[in-house]
Design a protein that fits this description.
11 strands, 110 residues, mainly beta
Length: 110
């Protein structure tokens, strides 16, 4: 059974940092792209960042502030979020190969 488990969300002041983690189990995703998405209240889910081997992609809104990385041995993907803004408040989801995690809440306060 495939599971993606996110962690690391929380409440942070604007300008602060958080590091999200997502650990996958039940299957080897070494050859798959892994990504992060987010959904803010009253908005559609949107792409944040993705990674496959050394190739990364970012949404324009997070470029220069967020960094995605992964640990192939641990079957994990991470999202380092710096200089957080109020508009980064959302539930963040890990995704790969059609599988989704349950999400982790990130709240940025002023």
């Amino acid at each position: 059974q495939v599971q993606l488990v996110e962690s690391g969300g929380g409440l942070v002041q604007a300008g602060g940092s958080l590091r999200l983690s997502c650990v996958a189990s039940g299957r080897d995703f070494t050859w798959s792209e892994m990504g992060w998405y987010r959904q803010a209240p009253w908005k559609e889910r949107e792409f944040v960042a993705s990674i496959k081997f050394d190739s990364t992609n970012y949404a324009n809104s997070v470029k220069g502030r967020f960094t995605i990385s992964r640990d192939l041995i641990k079957n994990a993907v991470y999202l380092q979020m710096n200089t957080l803004r109020l508009e980064d408040t959302a539930i963040y989801y890990c995704q790969t190969s059609g599988y989704w995690g349950q999400g982790t809440q990130v709240t940025v306060s002023s």
